[in-house]
């Protein structure tokens, strides 16, 4: 939900400093998702397809 708000905020701001803040927030959230996706897949995916799913991310 916060990622959607960050993306919309980045598109709608009119001042450069606001855009930089929104871009920082959105970039931080993208990094957080990339970090957490591997851990989530390794914990929740079924054993036979765990390696294939992890290599796709």
UniProtKB/TrEMBL annotation:
Chief location bin: membrane
Source organism, top-level taxon: Eukaryota
Membrane topology per record: Multi-pass membrane protein
Keywords annotated in UniProt: Membrane, Transmembrane, Transmembrane helix
Record-linked SUPFAM superfamilies: MFS general substrate transporter (SSF103473)
Residue span, Major facilitator superfamily (MFS) profile domain: 1-57
UniProt subcellular location: Membrane
Protein name: Major facilitator superfamily (MFS) profile domain-containing protein
Organism: Aspergillus pseudodeflectus
């Amino acid at each position: 939900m916060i990622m959607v708000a960050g993306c919309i905020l980045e598109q709608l701001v009119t001042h450069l400093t606001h855009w930089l803040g929104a871009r920082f927030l959105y970039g931080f959230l993208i990094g957080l998702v990339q970090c957490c996706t591997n851990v989530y897949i390794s914990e929740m995916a079924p054993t036979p397809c765990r390696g294939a799913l992890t290599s796709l991310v």
